[in-house]
Design goal:
38% of the residues lie in helices and 23% in strands. By secondary structure, it is α/β, with parallel strands linked by helices. The longest helix is centred in the last third of the chain and has 21 residues. The chain has 3 domains: 153 residues, Alpha-D-Glucose-1,6-Bisphosphate, Chain A, domain 3, CATH 3.40.120.10; 216 residues, Alpha-D-Glucose-1,6-Bisphosphate, subunit A, domain 3 (Alpha-D-Glucose-1,6-Bisphosphate, Chain A, domain 3), CATH 3.40.120.10; 86 residues, TATA-Binding Protein, CATH 3.30.310.50. The chain is built from 15 helices and 20 strands. Keywords: Isomerase, Magnesium, Metal-binding, Phosphoprotein. Its cofactor is Mg(2+). One of its GO terms (cellular component) is cytosol. GO terms for molecular function: magnesium ion binding; phosphoglucosamine mutase activity; phosphomannomutase activity.
Amino acid sequence: MALIKSISGIRGTIGGKPGTGLTPIDVVKFTAAYGVIVLQQDAGKKVIVGRDGRISGAMVRSLVVATLQGLGLEVIDLGLSTTPTVEMAVKMEGAAGGIILTASHNPKEWNALKLLNKDGEFISAETGARVLELAEQEDITFAEINKLGTITEDDSFMQRHIDAILAHPLVNAEAVKAKKYKVIVDAVNSTGATFVPALLKALGVEEVSVLNGEVTGNFAHNPEPLPENLRELCNEVARKNADLGIAVDPDVDRLCFVCEDGTPFGEEYTLVAVADYVLSKQKGNTVSNLSSTRALRDVTELHGGQYFGSAVGEVNVVSKMKEVNAVIGGEGNGGIIDPQLHYGRDALVGIALFLTHLAQSGKGIGALRQTYPNYFISKNKIELDESVDVKAIFEKIKTKYSKQPINTEDGIKIEFDKDWVHLRTSNTEPIIRIYSESNTETTANNIAKRIMEDIKEMMQESV
């Protein structure tokens, strides 16, 4: 059992004893704390709720909705939905906030409460800390009988989300339709099975096959859209001579593609390709987190823009995008954030922009991929003993590599010409994550190996 309380939401495995897993008591406690803060902010009483296709989704939804109603709030229940759709619904409805019931790419035993502010964005660190504090106090007063809230079910937001994408100035449905693409979608047994085909149909894509299309929450494979989890999709694209494959995670905020020969386009390159297209139409800056590929920086500078790195985490990417007025941004895990639509990772707008780019390029998806620089990211970690002073080790690393450009916004990122290594601690595990990138896999691995040896030596010196 696991329960992870963070400033952006509550995540845990279903079952167990309260405080050790995401039990009904924990769901009610944290929902109530969030609801009280919504009421205190005087932004109205309307709260949007939506969920992905997880097995536990209906149960968690019942608990969340009833708790909000018990506080006197007006709940708009979207039912089965996506993270970006709930985010957009908050803005469309002028709601005071929203709760998305999804554990994103985590396995089926997990679920979570993702908490939104009145802008349809993840709550701030300050608000998140207040939610955690209030939940532990358990000093909450619920509404009396004549002041109970209301529950309204509304399934119109999928179409409203799609309509907003079709109205996007950089989405060209006619260009996509003219290509008569044959597409295979891996919906991983969640709401992408409904939302992605509906979007493709609206874009004029007539030939769509869906793998793992039953919304059961019994994920057919590990739901994180990484190459090792998408063998079925890769094989099916090649076998059926499809033009491309599309994979999303259970809440449809991450996106990756498969080329016509069944090879992965690369989740890091989803954002690179979309940014390339957006920047070709609209000059400006870009943002991704510090652990994402350098290819975005290369493409941005080629278009005359400036690239900025942010701390890891969607809320940090959004904050940096606003700070530097970025025209596109996101995360290298396939998360596209287009501020012209909303400030949240959105696989649906990512699909529309990517297909428009592909159609207008006149290339196949494999040929499009070859137009971007090739980089390889090596992902590693070192487990830590509780006695290890990570701050001291990071200071020693900074001293050793002081002649190199160093960014300390989120751990330490060291640049070596076009290569880099990023070290950061985990919020949930006693580890240091070490990500490194180079234009060859061997060099990327060697950079990581060198830094890991440095860390181990420093750990031994401090014993």
